[in-house]
Design a protein that fits this description.
The protein has about 120 residues and is mostly helical. The chain has two domains: about 1-45, no CATH class; about 50-115, no CATH class. The protein contains six helices and two strands; from the N terminus they run ββαααααα. Strand 1 and strand 2 (about 5-10) form a beta hairpin. Helix 3 (about 50-60) packs across helix 4. The termini are far apart.
Length: about 120
């Protein structure tokens, strides 16, 4: 026995340096994580939780690495809310209400981003 901090532990010799009880526990957890039901949730990179996804939309428009003013952050959050809730194409009515005239390329891009699973579009 040797002294480790305030605990006494027995030294053991093993090729794997892991106890059998640890290996049994580890393999049980590993097997549970490899179930087909759980792995199906990870297909197509759909493992990001909703908060991370929303935050990604905000920081893509107002990066944390650059200084931006409060109004810029407010606009970035507003855009992120629209896109998160309704998709990229929902920006078109907002642009029209602001008396902006999105051209055919902008409309096509937003439509293709919407139909292809919401590919990120950096509309500032």
């Amino acid at each position: 026995m040797f002294l480790y901090g305030h605990l006494h532990q027995e030294c053991f010799e093993s090729e794997s340096s892991c106890t059998q009880s640890f290996l049994a526990s580890f393999l049980a957890v590993f097997a549970a994580l490899c179930t087909p039901e759980l792995l199906e949730k990870c297909l197509l990179g759909a493992t990001q939780n909703r908060n991370e996804s929303f935050n990604n939309l905000v920081w893509a428009r107002a990066p944390k690495t650059e200084f931006v003013t409060r109004p810029t952050v407010d606009i970035a959050v507003s855009q992120a809310v629209i896109i998160f809730n309704s998709g990229q194409q929902a920006l078109l009515p907002v642009m029209e209400r602001m008396k902006m005239n999105p051209g055919p390329l902008c409309r096509a891009h937003l439509a293709s981003a919407y139909t292809s699973g919401g590919i990120e579009c950096n509309v500032h």
